[in-house]
Known about the structure:
The structure is a single chain. The protein is of the alpha+beta class. It folds into 3 domains: 2-109; 164-230, no CATH class; 244-395, 3-Layer(aba) Sandwich (Aminopeptidase), CATH 3.40.630.30. The protein is built from 9 helices and 7 strands; from the N terminus they run αααααβααβββαβαββ. The chain has helices at 2-44, 52-163, 172-180, 189-202, 212-230, 259-269, 276-284, 332-346, 361-369, and strands at 248-253, 288-296, 301-312, 315-323, 351-357, 373-382, 387-395. It has a 7-stranded mixed beta sheet with strand order 1-2-3-4-5-7-6, with helices on both faces. α1 (2-44) runs antiparallel to α2 (52-163).
Amino acid sequence: MQNIENLQIQRREVSDNIRRVTKEIIMMEEVLKETDDKILGMEFQMVSKDSEQWNDIVNKARKFRERIAHLKSERRRFIRMEQLFENQIKEIEKESEAREREKENITELEEKKKQLASELRKMRKEQQKTEDILKKLNKERKVREEKIQQTAIKEEADDFAKSGEAAVPKTVSEEIEDVLAGDIKEPDKAEVSEKETESEKEEAPRRKLKTLKDLAKMYKTIDKQEKESKESEEEITFPPPKPLDKLKFSINKFTTSDLKEIIDIETFSFPRPWRRYMFYKEMEIPVSKHYVFRANDGISKFITAYCIYWITNKVMDIKNFAVHPSYRLWGIGEKFLKAMINKAKASGAVKAKVIIRKSNTAAQELVKKLNFRRVEVKGEYFGFVKEDGIVMEREIKR
């Protein structure tokens, strides 16, 4: 600001000099005109050019012209100086305007920074709320799991107490399913009333298991019975596949009525299959998604595949996935898993992951087709039939 003020003062001084010189030039030109008129008058009067009077007036006219030329030269110099000062002033004003604009931009950026900081604080608060809700849900889930386990243990203990140590279950699958979750279908009211009447008549005392020692003894007996009945247990059989071109497929959330088919596929597919109560538990967990790939041949409907996955922190975590043995290697698994990834994407997932047994090369090849890559090996991740788990992941593009 001080520089531009100095330049403006100098420009005003130069402008004053230009006006002063211009006035002087006008005055000198008027005097010169009068002198020239006198010379013309003397020429008309035939005054001798050698006379002193003639020489004086001619010398005056010459000096006036020289003075006028000098003043005009000075005025041109002052005009150039004035132009120079004006250019400098304009440049400084431009720089000043640029600095002002910079300051305004900085102010705007600071305002935006404050707004972003405020939004970030809000997002962190929302994130904290979400985490709190997630913790609450996880806590509730654990409570429900504990209740389910306690209920299963109680039912198992009651059934064991009723049947006695020497009792042998019909089949291993029926005994475990009944102990842990009970039958899916509700019993007929008439049957219930008959049983209640019989129990009232018999009034058979139940043995109560009061200590962990009794419970451990009960499990040892069940393990022994399972080993004895394993040889006689019937294998699960599946009907031959139907032509794919005659089937129509649909994706639905599975319900309790689908569990028999699902458990048959589960038991056939894995060395340590999920039990019925585990599927019940998944259906109660808020973050758990459970679907079946149902086929329809126009006569009947049946399940060709099922999938269970969780979505937490925008990650699709595939917990269970299996394809009907009769429909493997037909592209069913790839098509269904791709549809599941799309559903997870619609729910906001940006990544998918799955942990597969090291020996399950077929499953590894399947997910590789859908751009999963191997990222980690977890030693002895699977407990029963100890085996390493291969962690495979892929990005889900929005």
